Amino acid sequence: MAVTKTKFALAVLAAACLMAAAVPAARAQDPNVSMEGVIDLDPTNVKEVLSGMKLTLAEFYAPWCGHCKRLVPEYAKLGEMVAADPMMSQHVQIVKADCDKHRSLGEPFGVTGFPTLKILPRGTGLDEARNSFNYEGAREAEAMFNKLKELVEMDKKVGRDDKLDVVASDFMAADDKAAFLAKPETKTAIDAVFGGELYYGLMEKIVNKGDEYVEKEIARIGRIIAKGKITREKFADMILKQNVLRAFSVEES
């Protein structure tokens, strides 16, 4: 009898251990679980989060969907990767929305199946959901991260011109920047390119305020954008200015 009781006790203990191990595994596959670096959307925060200030990858899911459950570990890893990268965390946000609980969140994006992954370029807020597009790449964290990084690099080139970037580099290397700016060929090169007036204006600022103006202004604009309390038009102007400032930045070269 003692042997039987012992076997029974061991069986119960083994079953308890298996159940305890199964709980974390099940939670790890729950799309509703909180993830580091991933924002959960709901009707109260969606307009604020999807403001267009950051490049956004959004997952629209249903908790019962098998494909959504299988995506959980990779999506959680992606959130951690973005949060740990200073450049990416400044420009990118990862979000997710339970469309079984909040169907209205998926409607502006035309969500009809789960999971749907949408990319919202910077400048694309909830009101411009039609400008978002599907992420069609591999659903591993590294692949999603690399795609987002590629888009960030493209975004940072908006407003830039290769020829004017060379002029900017030569300007920053000049011992006498005021004389460089006053040369007729400098003005001719700048006037020949659309958007050159922004480059010229920044050169004037650097002459008047010193080389340190570049990094200080890049940082100042970054802080203003991070707060998010600016109009869409002001945001677009600041992105252009910040991008062109990077052409003069020693840290960016």
UniProtKB/TrEMBL annotation:
Enzyme class: isomerase
Pfam families to which the protein is assigned, alphabetical: ERp29, Thioredoxin
Record GO terms (molecular function): protein disulfide isomerase activity
Keyword rRNA-binding: no
Signal sequence residues: 1-28
Any one of the GO CC terms: endoplasmic reticulum
Alphabetic keyword roster: Disulfide bond, Isomerase, Redox-active center, Signal
EC number, UniProt record: 5.3.4.1
Reactions catalysed, as given in the entry: Catalyzes the rearrangement of -S-S- bonds in proteins
SUPFAM superfamilies according to UniProt: ERP29 C domain-like (SSF47933), Thioredoxin-like (SSF52833)
PANTHER family to which the protein is assigned, alphabetical: PROTEIN DISULFIDE-ISOMERASE C17H9.14C (PTHR45672:SF11), PROTEIN DISULFIDE-ISOMERASE C17H9.14C-RELATED (PTHR45672)
Sequence similarity: Belongs to the protein disulfide isomerase family.
Protein name: protein disulfide-isomerase
